[in-house]
Design goal:
The chain is mostly helical. It contains 3 helices and no strands. It has one domain. The radius of gyration is 24 Å and the shape is rod-shaped.
């Protein structure tokens, strides 16, 4: 009987939580920048100009933020894979290892 979730379950839930957090961040950021643009438009008398500018600014900023996060995650995964691969290569070539790896 397992009382604790498996590591793969924890990774899946963390990804789901992270995705929900990013979605909420995107919605609130766009809403905030749209609101700032709307307030500036009312104050300056330029009807849709600031709303469009600030909405585009928020969208580009979010895209760059997501790209930076994605790149950092991929680099971390590549480093983890390289470490696992190096550890597997440095393991002695005993007959028992071939059976464990499913190569026999």
């Amino acid at each position: 009987m397992k009382l604790l979730p498996s590591p793969s379950y924890a990774r899946r839930t963390m990804r789901a939580d992270d995705s929900l957090g990013r979605a909420m961040e995107a919605a609130f950021t766009l809403l905030a920048f749209f609101g700032i643009g709307f307030a500036l438009d009312r104050w300056l008398g330029t009807t849709p100009v600031m709303m469009i500018v600030f909405s585009m600014l928020a969208a580009v900023g979010m895209f760059l933020s997501w790209k930076a996060r994605y790149t950092a995650q991929m680099e971390a995964l590549e480093a983890e894979r390289a470490a696992t691969r190096d550890a597997a290569r440095s393991r002695p070539a005993w007959p028992g290892n071939a059976i464990k790896d499913g190569a026999a």
